Amino acid sequence: MNSYTGHLLSLILFTPSVAALLLLFFPSRWTAFFRWATFAASLVPFAVTIIVWSGYVPATSGFQFTERMQWYAALQSSYVVGVDGISLPMVLLTTLLIPLAILASFTIKERVKAYMILFLLLETGMLGVFLSLDLLLFFVFWEVGLVPMYFLIAQWGGANRNYASLKFILYTVGGSLGLLLAIQVIGVVSHTYDIGSLMQTWPQMNQPFMGIPAATIKAVAFWAFVVAFAIKVPVWPFHTWLPDAHTEAPTAGSMILAGVLLKLGAYGFLRLVLPLYPRESQAFAWALAALATAAIIFGALAAWAQTDFKKLVAYSSINHMGFVILGVAAAAWAAKSLNATIAVNGAVLQMFNHGLSAAGMFFLVGVIYDRTHTRNLSDYGGLYAKLPIYGGILVFTALASLGLPGLGGFISEFLVVRGAWPVFSLATTLSLIGLFFTGAYVLKALKQVLHGPLNKRWQGNIEEINPREIFVIAPLMVLMLVIGIWPAWILNIINQAVMKLF
Amino acid sequence: MQFPILSVIIFIPLVAGLAILLMPAGRRDWIRETALGAASLTLLLSFIVYVGYDVQSGGYQFTEMVPWLPALGISYHMGVDGISVPLVLLGGIVVFCGVLISWRVEDRPREFFAFLLFLGTSVLGVFCSLDLFQLFFFFELAVFPKYLMIVTWGYPKTREYGSMKLTLYLFVGSMVALLGVLAIYFGSAARTFDLLELEKAGFPLAFQRMWFPLVFFGFAVLGGIFPFHSWAPDGHVAAPTAISMLLAGVEMKVGAFAALRVAIMLLPGGAHAWAPLVLALGVVNVVYGALIALVQTDFKYVIGFSSVSHMGLVLIGFATLNKEGLLGSGIQMFSHGVMTALFFAVVGMVYDRAHTRDIPKLGGLFSKMPWAGVGFIVGGLVSMGMPGFSGFIAEFPIFMGAWQVSPWVAIIAITGVLITAAYILLVLRRVFFGELPAEYLRIEDVSVQDKVAIALLVVIMIGIGLFPSLISPMVQSGVNHVLSLLGGA
């Protein structure tokens, strides 16, 4: 592997940060420059991801495009990165959503320089989680991504941003403490942080540590990992940071929060929890399935009850990520069976699809908020007549998030249900009832925004969706449609990896 | 004979300080420039030592040895190992930044800069000393400058109380340590103060167990060990900015370092026996210190207690007596030194403009002092142990070490991270964001000298955060030697 193709992943990972560093030296009043420069810079990781995607060989097992370099030798931790069929779609999702989110951020008027720099640093943090093949490095990127998001919410967010941002970061950091402790123990016991080798050795580890039996260590570490990732996904009942954070974040912040950050937690389950703790995962899979079902049902019911459009979409994220966790739980219980493979395929595809639809929905909420300066559903009404293009796009995106057959969400939800049904029949049945409520809240939102008599407030002028905004949402819509009618281009990559791992 | 670079590093500040005292009081420009020149030279030379230290060979390097009072076993013996080299660099950095931060001092700058530099000589001397008498000499050299600087240039309302408390408390601590030091001297067969020989002295186990607490706790008082820590918040807060930077940033490390060099390395049997107690006290430092910082309303007291909390991590690392814990402590001494110097510098910048440290009265200062704001943010992230910064590089191995000794220590101490995150973010928001009170509309941004200091400290913390190999192999080599004295890893 020559030195160019040998460092593609590092290029993807660090271009945003290098760009952020360079932007530091330009005067802050050049707002237009910062917007376009950041947008252009964010296209580089996306372009390189496409190159990696086309060079990726699905049939090969293991990680590809790997790079290894000494980092913290004294602790046996190295800079190791690589992609497989699970992480590559996530990288694509991230490098796709960031440019769109930056384009969506062109309406930000204050302190644009700081905003853009933070966004680029955020991108590196998230990509690092998906690319890391060293446990310590994983944790580094896991935590680092929190800081830019904290500032994005706290500085450019809504009225309740102080509370929401502090809750977001303290909740997530608190949950990560257990993960940190568990990683420390793994390092002390195994003398390595290399995820590849830990996947072989850690499940077999049976030596007592400090007088504590191995089974206890592993059980406690398992729960520490689970709690940290469960907070991020979020799995009910660790979800309470999400509605506030998503609602108070600026539009693009919510797009990335829902579109990518939540996937970090789910990715943690698939990359770390299930491979490192197969026995514990199996033993507690029922609990995970129960919580996933709770997320699906309560998330949908809570969304249905909302009067704030943005909060409705926020709760919908809890609802949709529940399916991901249901798939994970099924795979945990029925490890190495066909059902597990199908369920995880569904879970990963759902992660990708939800990334698209959630980002799209938050963006569209932002579009209408920019015009009406309210998020209260009862303040809208009959907007379809005034904004037919926006209306059509909103219907499309909402139905995609609903899982309408023909659009991507259906494929992933179907796969999850197909995989989970033989394994956790009760949970799956209840989840389908939850899906019923999903339809309810989506249709309710559409009705309140678009249909009915035109609300008198908007009788004057209200701008239709403009070309820049269409440019943001169009790629998402195209992908949602393509995945719905021809999922093979992505499902094949996911499936080949999942078949070998789960 | 090789160039005595360590002696030069140690005595440049002293010589420059004396020269400054001879200058006319009105020539502020000569005074400041001499001080800056001396500090820059010291920093440069300490950096040369840092890159010149041969990590592969390890051991004590750049040694200088001149018998002084052979009859009493006292010699002039200098040398650095992998643990003290970063601390020497730290001393150079903090003195340099302290001079820059103090650029606008109006009240008797001649005496101010002179005594600041004397403090520099004292700390550098301790780090380089390989003779116990000499170490103690340099240790005590700091007492008078500390007292004088706090009581003369400190915060008027509390400087007398703060300086008295700090000086008397530390004095008692060092007297206790002196008893132990003398016991070591008289207990050694060779009746020597030379550290290298004392390392091989092989004191009886009962002797070690008896004298270790006196030496360790005597020196660790300066390190801020609970319950002997209460001099630190009052003393640091009362001190003028540059002295707070030096006190919290370097002096506390002098105490911890001396506890390591003299107590742990010379009395390893005693260290093993007393480690559980130190471990427990360290945990109290971390959690209790953080909780108290959380409830402070005075900006500077938040930082003062934060220092107590972070030194607890150093103590925990020491008490693990294993490879990872000691590695982490060595890095933490450096990382925390840089971080707290930055914190106190920022606090000073805020106070100089707002003339209050009362958090409820502050707010929105980021718009007026963005550099200070960014500096505080970076310092805050280091303080929280956020990965990507030097604090994480230091804290992670400390916890790995703690796990090998007592899981409960690791589990309880990690809560300090969360509490720290809480108070840092709250203080950050309350001081730098939110509404800018009307009376601060006209305050000016920080000066060029302030910006240089902030930039230097920030770059160091991020640099180590991204590239731990800049410091960890160095500290590792020093730790290996300590482990050999303790009887293996």
Write a brief structural summary:
The complex is a heterodimer of chains A (about 500) and B (about 500). With about 500 residues, chain A is mainly alpha-helical.
In words, what does this structure look like?
The complex is a heterodimer of chains A (502) and B (489). Chain A is mainly alpha-helical and 502 residues long. Chain A contains 21 helices and two strands. In chain A, helix 1 runs antiparallel to helix 2 (31-55), helix 2 (31-55) packs parallel to helix 4 and helix 18 (408-420) crosses helix 20 (467-485). Chain B is mainly α. Chain B has helices spanning 5-21, 28-52, 84-101, 109-128, 132-141, 143-153, 159-187, 195-199, 205-223, 231-238, 241-266, 268-294, 299-320, 323-354, 370-383, 390-403, 407-432, 448-466, 472-486; strands spanning 61-69, 74-80. The mean pLDDT of chain B is 94. The A-B interface holds A 70-75, 136, 139-144, 147, 150, 154-155, 162, 166, 169-170, 173-174, 177, 180-181, 184-185, 187-188, 210, 212 and B 324, 327, 381, 384, 386-388, 392-393, 396-397, 399-400, 403-404, 406-407, 410-411, 414-415, 417-418, 421-422, 425-426, 429, 433, 468-469, 472-473, 476.
Quote the beta fraction of chain B: under 5%
Major β-sheet strand ordering of chain A = 1-2
Helices of chain A, by number, come to 21
**SSE sequence of chain B, one letter per element:** HHEEHHHHHHHHHHHHHHHHH
First-to-last CA distance of chain B: 35 Å
Radius of gyration of chain A: 22 Å
Q: Compute the separation of the termini of chain A in Å.
A: 29 Å
Mean pLDDT of chain B comes to 94
Detail the poorly predicted runs of chain A.
none
Shape of chain B: globular
Provide the helix percentage of chain B.
Answer: over 70%
Oligomer: heterodimer
What is this structure's SSE topology?
The complex is a heterodimer of chains A (about 500) and B (about 500).
Chain A: H1 8-23, H2 31-55, E1 64-72, E2 77-83, H3 87-104, H4 112-131, H5 135-144, H6 146-156, H7 161-190, H8 195-201, H9 214-232, H10 241-248, H11 251-276, H12 278-283, H13 285-304, H14 309-333, H15 338-372, H16 383-386, H17 388-402, H18 408-420, H19 425-450, H20 467-485, H21 488-501
Chain B: H1 5-21, H2 28-52, E1 61-69, E2 74-80, H3 84-101, H4 109-128, H5 132-141, H6 143-153, H7 159-187, H8 195-199, H9 205-223, H10 231-238, H11 241-266, H12 268-294, H13 299-320, H14 323-354, H15 370-383, H16 390-403, H17 407-432, H18 448-466, H19 472-486
Antiparallel strand pairs in B: 1-2
Helix pairs in contact in B: 1-2, 1-4, 2-3, 2-4, 3-4, 3-11, 3-14, 3-18, 4-5, 4-6, 4-11, 5-7, 6-7, 7-9, 7-10, 9-11, 9-12, 10-11, 10-13, 11-12, 11-13, 11-14, 12-13, 12-17, 13-14, 13-16, 13-17, 14-15, 14-16, 14-18, 14-19, 15-17, 15-18, 16-17, 16-18
